[in-house]
Fold this protein.
Amino acid sequence: MRAFLRVVLLVLAALALPAALGGPTAVDTVTGLNAARTDGASPSPAPTAYDPTRPTAAVVVGAKGAVASDVLAPYEILAATGAFNVYTVAPGSHPVPLTGGLDLVPDLTFTGLEDLLGGPADLVVVPAMPDVGRPTTKPVTAWLTTQAHGGAVILSVCNGGAVVASAGLLDGHRATAHWLRLDEWAGAYPAVDWVAGTRYVDDGAVISTAGVLSGIDGTLHAVQRLVGQDAAVRAARAIGWSYDASSGPPRMARTRLAPPDAVVALHSAFGWDRPRIGVQLTDGVGELELASVFDTYAQSLAADTVAVGDRPVRSRHGLTFVPRTASVAGLDRLVVPGTTGPRTVPGIDVVHPHERPGFAYDAVLQDLARTTDVATARWTAKVLEYPVDGLPLDGPSWPWALTLRPVALGTLGVLVALGVLGLVRRGPHLSARRGQVPAGSESAMRRQSRGVSP
């Protein structure tokens, strides 16, 4: 029994230091993905044009922000068709943080959109939000309910499905969401028939997609349904995405966590010195190009990103973004999305991932593999739900130096525990030795008390 307790104690000791030091870091890393800006900057969005002959699509952004790709990929696809009025909408007009600290100024508030249209939108896109199920989403869910009851088609992207479910709009419907939390949503919203192994589900009033870039398939399907097949095919070709308009929802194997996915725990918990990447904001940048940089590095949890620029910028299709810093001081690298922007900056490495044509995420994932490791790039692609079997990823195979950190902490904890156990075991022996009287000392003490020399 003592041997068993000793093993348990040593195991706990091996886990204690990594947990104590890595746990708070992991929480800060994950919660920081949508950290709000603190300077109070709130520039005006670009003027909104409205063509009453076109259907209107509204891309919702919650007060606490949303996943960058869930917002920007559908927005660019819809805007690029030229067939929709497309607006980003939110409860308020202040900038909202997308993944990695990309601050978007919504085109309209909910009230502003209602004043513009005089009724519901034709299509409402709902991205994943960091505060799903919390009271802060009530303005969003209440507005979604009004839109749905007014006849709008709801398109949920990734865990935006849980936002729609929390409004009660998926009860009795088939739906899907990101593979990583699908079981969680099944427990939280049991009235929904959650489906795995497909990139999107069309259940009439609601189209739901699986994780992140599955939203591209779902958005193209919505374009085909509302505008036509030719428009969807052209939109897919414009962004470098493979889309079969006649085959229905693409199937995929049920994704689950696997041992190599432990790489994300290493980065989130022990990446104390993760690189700080500046992302240069420039006028005319593509929305997908922006999302590919912010979401890829942020979702990897292997780097921190910050939007760099000296003023608000307008994207290719008119969205307004606000940088968080004008300085490159303290940055490890500067990544420039799109095909414009600075070529060189004194004292810092400048990267242009989109110089060559192709799907925007490819070059960014390749850069992540090269500068971090292949395991991290594959995990990030898995989170993005982007198949990379045919994409060459070259770089270190695994973050071995990072792996040594929890190992070293665990070893230190075991050594400390062994030291404590050694002291505990020696304690009774030391006490017993202190209580013993050496031979002959008792008679010597009696002689001394009588004043007799030995």
User: Anything to note?
Assistant: The chain has two domains: 56-239, 259-398. Residues 448-454 have pLDDT under 50 and may be disordered. The two ends are 52 Å apart (CA to CA). The domain at 259-398 is CATH 3.40.50.880 (Rossmann fold).
